[in-house]
Amino acid sequence: MTKQEQKEFVKTCLDSLESHFNKLYDQDKIPITWDGIELRWFINDMAKTLNWSKSSNHRKQEYNHYIFTNNLI
């Protein structure tokens, strides 16, 4: 992917998450008592649903190694 394609992909994923959250919020399915803690957990859980890849364990291991060695998270 080019850098521009990467940016567009990330934006599409984040837009999808935002749209899904707003739909649930408008349907009163998100508790008003949730603050930043629960909302972060929920965003994390929603993001996990975007894992559509059927890639190999080797590729995931390479990814995890890169994230760890480059302090990205």
Describe the fold and architecture.
By secondary structure, the chain is mostly helical. 68% of the residues lie in helices and 0% in strands. It is built from three helices and no strands. The protein has helices at 3-26, 36-48, 57-69.
Summarize the amount of helix as a percent range: 55-70%
- Spell out the helices and strands N to C: HHH
Termini, distance in Å?
A: 22 Å
Helical segment tally?
A: 3
- State the major sheet: none
Q: What radius of gyration results from the CA coordinates?
A: 15 Å
Give the number of DSSP strands. Answer: 0
Strand content: under 5%
What structural class is derived from the secondary structure elements?
A: mainly alpha
Number of domains: 1
Pick out the low-confidence regions: none
Tell me the overall shape. extended
Overall average residue pLDDT: 90
